[in-house]
Automatic annotation (TrEMBL):
Source organism superkingdom: Bacteria
InterPro entries assigned to the protein according to its UniProt record, in alphabetical order: PspA-assoc_dom (IPR054437)
PspA-associated domain span: 1-92
This protein's name: PspA-associated domain-containing protein
Gene source species: Nonomuraea soli
């Protein structure tokens, strides 16, 4: 899966790593629903850090279409809330 982190670029994440990302996504969504800013910030950074860790960075000139777009690390809780679907940020 090709994932774009807004403002950073794209990474390719193996299918085996999606389950871990979904767990972190669920925790992030819970923090948003609870309107807990501190927990939101912690969970957003954890999710993005994990994507960076398990993903393989694609070159800036790569023209691969992104299958998923994640917010930047400095996104507000409202900005991320607007990006949520009924499956969170990461489907699956």
């Amino acid at each position: 899966m090709i994932i774009r982190i807004m403002g950073e670029g794209q990474v390719e994440v193996a299918p085996d790593d999606i389950a871990v990302l979904n767990d972190l996504d669920s925790e992030l969504e819970a923090a948003i629903v609870a309107d807990n800013e501190d927990e939101f910030r912690t969970k957003l950074h954890a999710l993005l850090d994990k994507v960076r860790h398990v993903g393989k960075s694609l070159p800036d000139e790569s023209l691969e279409p992104s299958e998923l777009i994640l917010p930047p690390a400095d996104a507000s809780i409202e900005e991320v809330r607007e990006m949520l679907t009924d499956q969170g940020l990461i489907p699956g």
